[in-house]
C-alpha cells in the first residue's frame, strides 16, 4: 500500500514537471494598431489607463502576464480564459467592427460594468489594481456612453 | 404530373417576384392587383425568380424565430428563450446574403452578424440578460425589415419603464401588448409605436 502511494506521488511529480515544458502560446501580439479601442477613439490618458488596467489582460492582444503564468497548469487555464474573453470582445480590433456591431458591443460593455459583472471577481482577487471603484466606474460608464451617442449620431 | 409541378413552381415564383418588385410599385400593385403581378414577374423571371423565393423564406424564418423568442420571454421561460436564441443565431448565420440585391448586401450582412451575436448570448444567459439582448436587437430588426420588407404586419411596441426608465422596444405580430421585457411582472406595459406593414 505504501509502495503504491509513493509510486503515484512520483508519477504526479513527473507529470507536473513534464508539463512545464509544454509550450503555451502567449497573447502578446505587437504592435498596437489603429483599430485598437484607445487609439481609435483617442481616449483621454486617464480613461485609457483605466481601460488598460481593467480590461486589456483578457480583451486585447496585449496581455500583461503575471509571473505565475509560467507555472503550469495555471498558464493553460489563463490562456483558456484569455481566448474566451477575446472571442467575446477584442478591444485591439474594435475599430474594425461595423458601427452596428460597435453599438452592440458597447451596450454589452456598459451593462457588464454597470452590473459589476466585469472585471470578473476571480480576476480581481489577484489584480486589485484592476478594480473599478465607484469613481472609475462612473468615469468609464459616461465615457462609453458618450462614444455610443457619437456612433448613433 | 410534370405539368402540375411546373405550374405550381411557376405560380410560386410569380408570387415571389411580385413581392420583391412591389417595393417600387406599391401603388400600382394596390390598384391593379391582378394585372400588375404577372406583368412585373415577366421581367425578372429568368434570373430573379428563385432568388427572391429564398430571400423571402429566410427572412420569414428569421421573423418566426424572433417572435418565438418574444413569446418565450413574455412567458418568463428562460429555457425556451435560450433555444429560440440559438435557433435565431443559426438562422441568421445560414442566410445567404448573396441572394439579396448587391446594394443592400453590406447592411444586411452587418445586421445578420449582430442578430447572430445577440442570439448566441441569449442562448447561454439568464433571463435578465436575455431580455437585454432581445431589446438590443429591436432596432436592427426594424432596419432589416425596412430593407427586405416583411411577409406580415408587425408592430413596434415600446415600454418606457424598461432599463430604469430608459425604455425599451420590441416587435410583435399582434397589436395587443404582451411585454417580453418584463414578462409577468408587468405584462401590459407598453404601446404600439409604429406599424410595419407588408410590402
UniProtKB/TrEMBL annotation, chain A:
State the InterPro entries in the record.
Haem-bd
Recorded superkingdom: Bacteria
- Enumerate the SMART domains for this protein: Haem_bd
Pfam families from the UniProt entry? Haem_bd
- Record domain Haem-binding: where: 13-148
What name appears for this protein in its UniProt entry?
Answer: Haem-binding domain-containing protein
Amino acid at each position: 500500500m505504501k509502495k503504491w502511494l509513493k509510486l503515484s506521488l512520483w508519477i504526479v511529480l513527473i507529470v507536473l514537471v513534464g508539463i512545464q515544458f509544454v509550450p503555451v502560446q502567449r497573447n502578446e501580439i505587437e504592435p498596437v494598431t489603429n483599430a485598437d479601442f484607445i487609439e481609435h477613439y483617442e481616449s483621454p490618458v486617464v480613461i485609457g489607463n483605466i481601460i488598460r488596467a481593467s480590461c486589456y489582460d483578457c480583451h486585447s492582444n496585449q496581455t500583461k502576464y503575471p509571473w505565475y503564468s509560467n507555472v503550469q497548469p495555471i498558464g493553460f487555464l489563463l490562456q483558456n480564459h484569455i481566448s474566451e474573453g477575446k472571442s467575446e470582445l477584442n478591444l485591439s480590433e474594435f475599430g474594425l467592427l461595423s458601427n452596428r456591431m460597435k453599438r452592440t458591443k458597447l451596450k454589452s460593455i456598459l451593462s457588464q460594468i454597470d452590473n459589476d459583472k466585469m472585471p470578473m471577481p476571480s480576476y480581481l482577487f489577484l489584480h486589485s489594481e484592476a478594480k473599478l471603484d465607484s469613481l472609475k466606474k462612473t468615469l468609464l460608464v459616461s465615457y462609453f456612453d458618450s462614444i455610443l451617442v457619437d456612433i448613433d449620431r | 404530373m410534370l405539368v402540375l409541378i411546373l405550374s405550381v413552381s411557376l405560380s410560386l415564383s410569380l408570387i415571389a417576384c411580385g413581392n420583391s418588385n412591389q417595393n417600387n410599385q406599391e401603388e400600382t400593385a394596390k390598384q391593379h392587383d391582378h394585372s400588375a403581378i404577372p406583368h412585373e414577374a415577366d421581367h425578372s423571371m429568368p434570373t430573379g425568380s428563385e432568388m427572391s423565393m429564398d430571400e423571402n423564406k429566410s427572412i420569414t424564418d428569421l421573423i418566426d424565430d424572433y417572435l418565438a423568442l418574444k413569446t418565450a420571454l413574455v412567458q418568463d421561460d428562460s429555457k425556451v428563450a435560450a433555444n429560440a436564441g440559438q435557433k435565431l443565431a443559426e438562422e441568421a448565420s445560414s442566410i445567404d446574403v448573396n441572394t439579396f440585391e448587391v446594394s443592400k448586401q453590406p447592411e444586411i450582412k452587418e445586421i445578420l452578424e449582430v442578430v447572430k451575436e445577440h442570439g448566441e448570448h441569449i442562448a447561454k444567459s439568464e433571463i435578465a440578460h436575455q431580455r437585454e439582448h432581445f431589446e438590443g436587437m429591436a432596432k436592427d430588426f426594424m432596419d432589416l425589415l425596412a430593407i427586405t420588407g416583411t411577409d406580415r404586419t408587425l408592430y413596434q411596441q415600446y415600454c418606457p419603464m424598461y432599463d430604469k426608465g430608459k425604455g425599451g422596444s420590441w416587435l410583435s405580430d399582434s397589436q395587443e401588448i404582451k411585454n417580453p421585457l418584463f414578462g409577468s411582472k408587468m405584462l401590459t406595459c407598453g404601446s404600439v409605436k409604429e406599424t410595419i406593414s407588408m410590402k
